[in-house]
């Protein structure tokens, strides 16, 4: 019992001795984490977070800027620069408070607190026009009715051909039209499904599509977490991506420089940037940028400390702040200010990539595709010609027979007339002769 009491008293004494300490903190200006107000004071996410942690941890702090404006990386000789170097080399600096990505290399050099934020990386590129050709409104109710009426409604005839050849030809012609309309509608359906104007087109939507195309270059910040992850990755897609970046020298110095290059490239360049850094450009005017693809690498942000004791103290305060909901409120205030967004959210589902349009490409309708319709029409024409020849022959025979009968009738009639005329001429002569005999 006595040993437990002594341990408890020691812990209380250690906590009391550590309370009221003043820490010197180094940081870098990075909106919205740390904003220089211009009058020697700062604001932003880190200031509010440090204020909350200082109240819970019972310490005060003074914050200054890193002269190198770097987070910290090792040079060829193994020395650290930036904020990590300050924590290691400057005895007056106890904490580096900034969105420092926690990596194995940095953790082996200095202790870190628990992550206070996890973010990812996405592509950023020029946002295409949502509907440059008004494709969504091209088929109104009137236009759709006119289109259907003019292509599918067949005109009927009051009278039908009386000859067998004409009826066969008309029947096969309408069969031909029927097959052609079906083939045309089927091909037209495929064409409308494959139209690039149905959805705005983006060059790519996935890592694989990005690495297999060559129209849009892409880059990343050198020395950053994403750049290092791509270099050490065994994924062939990421290896191909970093090879292209190094071949074409498409790296940029900062996220702001990458966004500037995206805007100046007129859609021929994409920048791989952290979501939190890219959001402030994408969600504000002129609303010409958009994120493409899902988060690539989740990176935890933490604070670097000179000693493990300081990090443990900050970690306890971070846990309390997270449990109370204060950390979430800070993230919503500084990192997700949707009320201040001036651009509408662009969903990638409303866009289509060029690779997807290639898979939906419509093939022109050829004569071979409509061969059945032409065969039916050809058969109809052949039968029509055969029946037409038969009809002509029959008609001529009937006409010749009718003419022969007519001529025979006319000949018989002429003979009867001549005979009657002769009899009439002979009758008066006989009468006259009889009269003379009487006299």
Secondary structure layout:
Blueprint: H1 2-18, E1 22-27, E2 35-36, E3 42-43, H2 45-57, E4 60-65, H3 82-89, E5 95-101, H4 104-109, E6 117-119, E7 121-126, H5 141-152, H6 164-193, E8 201-202, H7 207-212, E9 217-220, H8 225-232, H9 236-248, H10 255-264, E10 269-274, H11 275-282, E11 289-292, E12 299-305, H12 308-323, H13 326-334, E13 352-353, H14 354-359, H15 371-438
Parallel strand pairs: 1-4, 1-5, 8-13, 9-10
Antiparallel strand pairs: 2-3, 5-12, 6-12, 7-10, 7-11
Helix pairs in contact: 2-12, 2-13, 6-15, 8-9
Descriptive notes:
With 439 residues, this protein is α/β, with parallel strands linked by helices. The chain has 3 domains: 2-120 and 300-334, D-Maltodextrin-Binding Protein, domain 2 (3-Layer(aba) Sandwich), CATH 3.40.190; 124-130 and 200-296 and 343-359, Periplasmic binding protein-like II (D-Maltodextrin-Binding Protein, domain 2, 3-Layer(aba) Sandwich); 144-196 and 366-432. The protein contains 15 helices and 13 strands. The strands form 4 sheets. Strands 4-1-5-12-6 form a 5-stranded mixed β-sheet, with helices on both faces. The chain has a 4-stranded mixed β-sheet with strand order 9-10-7-11. It has a two-stranded antiparallel ribbon with strand order 2-3. The model is unreliable at 1-18, 135-139, 146-152, 156-160 and 429-439 (pLDDT under 50). It is found in: Membrane. Residues 404-439 are annotated as: Disordered. Residues 32-89 form the Ionotropic glutamate receptor L-glutamate and glycine-binding domain.
């Amino acid at each position: 019992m006595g040993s437990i009491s002594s341990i408890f008293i020691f812990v209380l004494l250690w906590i009391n001795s550590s309370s009221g300490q003043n820490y010197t903190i180094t940081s870098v200006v990075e909106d919205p984490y740390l904003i220089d107000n211009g009058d020697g004071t700062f604001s932003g996410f880190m200031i509010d977070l440090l204020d909350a942690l200082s109240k819970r941890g019972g310490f005060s702090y003074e914050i200054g800027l890193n002269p190198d404006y770097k987070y910290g990386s090792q040079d060829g000789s193994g020395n650290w620069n930036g904020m990590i170097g300050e924590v290691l080399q400057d005895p007056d600096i106890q904490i580096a408070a900034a969105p420092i990505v926690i990596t194995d290399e940095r953790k082996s050099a200095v202790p870190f607190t628990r992550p206070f934020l996890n973010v990812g990386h996405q592509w950023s590129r020029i946002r295409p026009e949502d509907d440059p050709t008004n494709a969504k409104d091209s088929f109104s109710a009137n236009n759709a009715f006119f289109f259907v009426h003019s292509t599918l409604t067949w005109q009927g005839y009051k009278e039908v051909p009386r000859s067998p050849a004409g009826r066969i030809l008309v029947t096969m012609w309408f069969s031909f039209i029927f097959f052609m309309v079906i083939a045309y509608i089927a091909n037209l359906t495929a064409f409308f499904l494959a139209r690039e104007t149905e959805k705005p087109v983006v060059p790519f939507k996935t890592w694989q599509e990005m690495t297999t195309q060559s129209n849009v270059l892409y880059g990343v910040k050198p020395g950053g977490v994403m750049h290092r992850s791509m270099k050490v990755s065994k994924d062939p897609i990421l290896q191909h991506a970093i090879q292209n970046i190094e071949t074409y020298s498409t790296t940029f110095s900062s996220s702001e420089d990458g966004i500037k290059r995206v805007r100046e490239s007129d859609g021929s360049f994409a920048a791989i940037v952290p979501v939190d850094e890219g959001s402030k450009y994408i969600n504000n005017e002129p609303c010409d940028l958009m994120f493409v693809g899902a988060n690539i690498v989740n990176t935890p942000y933490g604070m670097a400390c000179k000693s493990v004791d300081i990090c443990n103290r900050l970690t306890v305060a971070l846990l309390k702040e997270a449990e109370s909901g204060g950390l979430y409120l800070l993230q919503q205030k500084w990192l997700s200010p949707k009320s201040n967004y001036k651009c509408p959210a662009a969903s990638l589902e409303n866009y289509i990539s060029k690779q997807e349009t290639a898979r939906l490409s419509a093939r022109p309708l050829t004569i071979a595709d409509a061969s059945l319709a032409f065969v039916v029409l050809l058969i109809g024409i052949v039968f029509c010609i055969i029946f037409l020849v038969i009809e002509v022959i029959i008609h001529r025979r009937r006409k010749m027979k009718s003419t022969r009968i007519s001529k025979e009738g006319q000949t018989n009639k002429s003979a009867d007339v001549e005979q009657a005329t002769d009899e009439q001429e002979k009758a008066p002569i006989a009468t006259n002769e009889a009269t003379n005999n009487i006299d």
